[in-house]
Every structure is written in C-alpha cells, then in structure tokens.
Amino acid sequence: MAKGKNNDRNYDPIAPGNDNTNPLEEIIQLPIDNEEIKEPTTTEKEATNPLREIIQPFIDFAKVPKVLWGVNISYLIEGMVYFGILTFMAIYFNDFFGLNDHQADLVVGFFTGGITLAMLFLGGMSDKIGIRKALLFSLIFMLIGRIIFTGVPYEMLFGKGSWVVLYYAALFGLFLVIIGYGMYQPAAYAAVKEFTDEKTATMGYAVLYAVMNLGGFLPGLISPRIRAWYRDFFIAKLKAAGIAVNPDVHYGMLGVFWFYVISTFLGIVVLLIYVNKKTIAKALEEKKQKELAQGKSEEQIEKERQENKPKKRSLKQYFLEHPLRDVKFAFFIFALIPVQTLFAHNWLTLPQYVDRAFGPTVKANMELFVNFNPILIFILTPLVAAITAKSDTMKMMILGTFVMALPTFFLAIGPNVYTLFAYIIVMSIGEAMWQPRFLQYAAELAPPGRTGEYMGIAQFPWFLTKIITALYAGWFLMHYCPVEGPKHTEQMWFYYGLIAITSPILLFLTRGWLRKEKEERDESILSTIIAIFIGIIVVAILIYMVKMLITILVTIPMSRI
C-alpha cells in the first residue's frame, strides 16, 4: 500500500514546494524567529495580575491632593456626629417631650427627609459659591442648630420654660441642621469630582462613602462611655436641685450631644486648615499638570474648566433639562426606595428594637449594635469598589440590592444576638456592592457645572424613603415592639423583608430596558406608564408631607396646651 507524504519519515513540512500542513505544527505553533518571542511588558503583567488590580486603586488614591484629605477628615467627623445624634433622636423626643413612638418617628422623618429635600434646593450651592464656602457655611449652620437642640432639655428640666416654646426651639435647631446638611453632602461629592481624575474617581467616591460610615461606627465605641458617665453626673445635679429623677429617661445622651457639638466645631477647624484657597489652587494646578502630561492642550483644559462652571438658565430651561424628565433614570432611582427603607430603619426602628427586645447587656451597648453597620461599610466599600471596578453597574445594583434585602428575613426568626449580627453583616455587604455605584452613577451623569444639582436630585427618592418609612415605622413599633406588653418582632421584620426585596425584583425585571443607551429617547407605553406612576407617587407623598408638618407643628403642640 502506498504511503502518503505525511507518513513518509523523510517528509519535511517546511521544505520548499510542500503545500501540506503538519497537524503537530498547528497545535504547537512554535515561533520560527526571535521577533515572535516577546517578554510581556510591565503594564501587561499588571493588567493580568488580579492582586495588582485590587491594590492599584488604593495606590492611585493615596496620591490625591491635600484638600481632598481635608474633605475626607471633615466627612469622617460629620459622619460620627450625624449618626450619633440620629441614634438617639426619637428617644430624645420620647424622653424629654413625652411623644409616643409614632409622633417621635414623624419628627425624625421630618428631619431626615428635610435634609434630602434641602439637597434638592441647596445642592447646587457648591456650583455657585464654591466648594470651600459651601462646606464652611453648612458646618456653621449645623453647629448653631446642634447647640440649640442640645440646650433645650436643660431649660425644660431646670428652668420654667413653656413646653410649646421649647418644642419649637428644638425643631428650629433641627431646621438649621437641615439647611446645613442640604449644602454639605453635595459639596463634599462635588469636591471628589473636582479633585480626582479618571484613575482616582471610583476610589474617591468609595472612600468618601466609607469614611462617613467609619464616623458612623465611632459612636458605638464612644457614646456608651460618655453616656454612662454623664448620666451619673446629671442625676446628681437633678437630685441636688431637688428635681425628681425618672429612671426610664436617658439623661446621658445630653453629654453625648455636647461631645458632638465640640466635634462639629473641630470639623470647621479642619476645613480652615486643609480646604483653603492655597490648597485648592495647588490641587487644581496638579490636576492641570497631569492633564498636560496626558496630552491635553492648555486651550482644551481651559475650555473644559469653563464648561464646568454653572450656567444661568431660565425657569423653562430648568424644567426642560431636569434629570427626572429622563424616565429611565427616574425609574432607576425610584426602584431603590423599597430596599432603602432598611437604611431608615437603622434609626427609626433598630435603636428601639435593641433597647426593648434584648437583655440588659445588649441594651447597655445599644449604640455598638446599631452602629456596627458603618464600620463594616468602611472596610468593605473600598475593597468591593476595587474588586468590582470593571463590573457592569446594573449587575452590581441587582446583586447588591438582593444581598442587602435578603438578611431582613433573619430577624423574622426572633430576637437573637447571632441573627442580629448576621443581618447587619450580610446587609452591609449588599450595601457596599451597590450604594457607592449609585452615587458615582449620579455624579458622572451630571453635565458640566451641574454636579451638585444632580447629586441633590439623585437624593430625592431617598427623601421619599425617609418620609414613607417614618409614616409606618412608629406604628409597627407600638404594635409589634412596644415598651411594655407582649412583643411580636418576628412579624414586623418579615413585613419589612417583603418590602425590601421588591427593589432587586424590579431592577431584574427591567434590566434590559434600563441598559438601553441613554441617548435613545424611549417613547414606549411602559415609559409613559412609569412616568405617570412616579408623578402620582410624588404628588401623594408631598400632600402627606403637608399633613405630616401640620401634625408636627400644630397638632402635637395643641395637644399640650
């Protein structure tokens, strides 16, 4: 039998005139000259090194300007103060003004919702007066408001002030904080956008969110000790003045509040040192030099800078260019309301739940449990941001909201320290997955010169969340976790879990529609229905807000006259 060429031992696959292909050569593909053998470059090695991909964002962010570190330190302090006071705000109105859970939660909802509403109107202040002035003015407003709010109970206990007058004074103090915070947070995020570049932006937003949460954890370490010491000190003063002591009143919180007043003042000092004209000018010059090194011309840089300045717009233009006119963007942010109710429960429900449903050891360290979530966010957010930097935003939003909502059902098992920790830990992982991505999405969507405005608008559903949750959280506490009587907290958390899980379901079902290019104008029936539905919800909530304000400002005071 004749042999084919490939079976001939003398066959040479690269001999001249030989057209056949050697199967072995196809598999091995050996290089035939030195030019085909290339050593991977350093950049290529880094790109294929998973550990390097995680570490590099931290290395890049460490090189950000001094001014941005000043903003982060200020944000750290403010996170501690904000969450520290918020933990006790409902209890403050329970103890010193005698409000029931529903009434106290309405006031807290007015405060937290008012902050977000203020961002809608004051979020653009940093674009108009500058980041530095916006941050300083905001902290001054908050300092004055916190002094008033903390001082009111002293007049009530030691003086002869009218209950109604002191109640309005406490609300006025909260109002000043609302005004201040309405400028503060958008200005801080505007600073991140202003002083970071493409390499450091993602980590910049993540770090700002993380340091706020680190600040939110600090009350869990600091507050119990100050509270215990000041309680004994304050009770001694009451007895010396011949005033009856109520063992159920948390007198120690006033000492904690004064600590936060001092901390607010220190935050102003930090801004004066780190965020001044000199450091801002230096940061902008460094950013300019980086852009020049990347190949941008002086003219191009100046053009971009002019574009980033806010432009005067007529009222008609304002409404025509309003972010909520984008139905997809509006649906996207409104779909997050159900899962965001879990944030509101951190101060509307969790403090009272821990204080009433657990034993004395847990109760004595209530702040540690209530504020355990922030330290986890501080640790997890930068790590998750680095690991998932290249992941699809929509995918992270769906997975993150699902992971955050699911552990709510752990608490439906019943009051238990282990399920409480499991809930906080898993919920925090989910939060770290989606929350910074949402904030970055909102900031990057903003046209030049409108970052503060867009950050404020993105907070609008968060405002609705605070108001909506405040409407029912107090009622649930009174019926399922009262101060005295039988408790059925399992049912309460089961209902809350059903509400929260709605967000990932909505995002999953509409993921294809939401992924369409932003430039595509969607005239579908679905878009129209969603726009009408969102409009109805907004109008209904605003109407109820008026009723809520009447209750807070008129009904409650009138009941005391």
Explain how this protein is built.
This protein has 561 residues and is an all-alpha fold. It folds into 2 domains: 63-293, MFS general substrate transporter like domains (Growth Hormone, Chain: A, Up-down Bundle), CATH 1.20.1250.20; 326-515 and 524-555, MFS general substrate transporter like domains (Growth Hormone, Chain: A, Up-down Bundle), CATH 1.20.1250. Helix content is 75%, strand content 0%. The chain has 27 helices and no strands. The protein has helices spanning 23-28, 42-47, 50-61, 66-97, 101-122, 125-129, 131-158, 163-195, 201-240, 253-274, 277-293, 298-307, 315-320, 327-334, 337-348, 350-357, 360-364, 366-370, 372-387, 393-405, 417-445, 451-458, 460-480, 489-500, 502-509, 511-514, 525-558. The chain is globular, with a radius of gyration of 29 Å. The N and C termini lie far apart (117 Å). The relative contact order is 0.12.
Task: Provide the fold topology.
Layout lengths: L22 H6 L13 H6 L2 H12 L4 H32 L3 H22 L2 H5 L1 H28 L4 H33 L5 H40 L12 H22 L2 H17 L4 H10 L7 H6 L6 H8 L2 H12 L1 H8 L2 H5 L1 H5 L1 H16 L5 H13 L11 H29 L5 H8 L1 H21 L8 H12 L1 H8 L1 H4 L10 H34 L3
Helix pairs in contact: 3-19, 4-5, 4-8, 4-9, 4-10, 5-8, 5-22, 5-23, 5-27, 7-8, 7-10, 8-9, 8-22, 9-10, 9-19, 9-21, 14-27, 15-23, 19-21, 20-21, 20-25, 21-22
